[in-house]
Amino acid sequence: MSTDIIEARKIHASAGQKLLLSDINLSVPQGQFVALVGPNGAGKSTLLKLLSGLVYADSGEITLSGSNIARMKPAEISALLSYLPQRSEIYWNYRVSDILEIHSATDSLSLTTAHAVFSAYDHAKAFDIEQLIDRQFKTLSGGEQARVLLAACLISSPSILLADEPAAALDVSHQLQLLKTIKDRTSDGLTAIVVMHDLNLATRFADRIIVLNNGKIQIDGASREVSLSPALDHHFDVYFQRLSHEQQTILVPDFHSARPADKLASTSTNPLLKVV
């Protein structure tokens, strides 16, 4: 029996005549932080939607904790995972505390109002949004809204987090804090698949990087090994100069015509790195 909490086998997905994803095979164990990267239009958001059960593939199978997602009820899926799309909108102008309480798995009817607000405030501190707890959601900046929505996704302690560019609207300090919070939760068993565009942040926080391009998984491996792969340059159509700092590879991009990929990075020392 598989120990992977997420599995996708031979997934194909299309929209009309356009093929979005082709032959996707993916296994993610519990407690792993996976960064999903790739150029625009590669299929990253589509893959997250498939894994969340919001849309269905043309063919193939996805299982969550051993159950076929196509046969799971929406309540069963939502009890297992939280999904944060690239663009989120809350149409009612709730307070931040209301949003956190609504997303809490705790039955709010059994709590006094003071206790419920305290729980929301306590959770908000981990995301540096305790000062926003009484604010109306629509009065917040884009970055503040993004932090509130991620906090709401994690307040019920899901087993899986699927997040599409959660740090995109944040300043540098809050990007680091948000990704560290996700990383810390994986130590407690959370499985996270996060779409990211900043490859240096992906290398720093993720255990594993999956590169999607042209609807296919092109590279899949440990973060450091992926950052050293010259195939990364090819799929992003740039030349990456690779700098080393405290055992972390820092990628500095330049136009593809500037130089060929660094030959010193051409050989992976990790046999588990998959390059297509």
From TrEMBL:
Transmembrane domains' residue ranges: none
Domain called ABC transporter: residue spans: 6-239
PROSITE patterns: ABC_TRANSPORTER_1, ABC_TRANSPORTER_2
Pfam families in the cross-refs: ABC_tran
UniProt key word Metal-binding: no
SMART domains: AAA (SM00382)
SUPFAM superfamilies linked: P-loop containing nucleoside triphosphate hydrolases
Keywords in alphabetical order: ATP-binding, Nucleotide-binding, Translocase, Transport
Presence of keyword ATP-binding: yes
Molecular function via GO: ATP binding; ATP hydrolysis activity
Role: Part of the ABC transporter complex HmuTUV involved in hemin import. Responsible for energy coupling to the transport system.
Descriptive protein name: ABC transporter-like protein
Source organism (scientific name): Methylophaga lonarensis MPL
